[in-house]
Amino acid sequence: MATPETVKNRITEEEAQLKKLQEIVAESIKEEELIINNLLHPPTDVLSRGQRLSDKVARFGGSWKFIISFIVILIAWIIFNLISSGKEKFDPFPFILLNLVLSCIAAIQAPIIMMSQNRQEEKDRKRAENDYLVNLKAELEIRSLQQKVDLLQQQQIKALYDMQLEQLEQLEHLKKICERLHAKGI
């Protein structure tokens, strides 16, 4: 037969289990905040002078500022050499010096930009790894929470089943009392 103390003990046990689950969830959230903080504020890379220079060259070489200034310089170069008189012309019409300068710029700029792109690719790879780890952690947390919910449901079902058994026992006891009273004619 269920006494008020038994019911109170069961309620206290269930509250303790819920409190433990809440603590586990709070810890998981704190761990997730640490991962998110690390992703939002990644450790800064220590770049050499050459790496910083290649990043600046790549950033400038891929900008509209570079394209527009380069077009302006080319037009100025061509116009100056077309309009100038004999001695002032330093690169007459087929502009061989201009072609040499453009080839040299391209030959130097391409590997510098590739160095910067390789470093950016490495950063992207690290970000992808971090994303994978975050997704994996989230999946593991979901599985863990699902297991905890399943365990909690099993415990609640068991508690309900036990309470139902006690109620059936009490009903049987009441039935016997009613039968005795009925047999006595009361």
In short:
With 186 residues, the chain is mainly α. The protein has helices at 4-40, 49-61, 64-83, 96-184.
Please, could you describe this protein's structure?
This protein is mainly α and 186 residues long. It has one domain (4-40, 48-184). It is built from four helices and no strands. It has helices at residues 4-40, 49-61, 64-83, 96-184. The radius of gyration is 40 Å and the shape is rod-shaped.
List its salient traits.
4 helices, single chain, 0% strand, mainly alpha, 186 residues, 85% helix, rod-shaped
Number of helical elements? 4
What is the overall pLDDT average?
Answer: 85
Taken in chain order, the helices and strands follow as: HHHH
Q: Measure the end-to-end span.
A: 25 Å
Dominant shape: rod-shaped
How many strands appear in the DSSP assignment?
0
Give the arrangement of secondary structure elements.
Layout: H1 4-40, H2 49-61, H3 64-83, H4 96-184
Helix pairs in contact: 1-4, 2-4
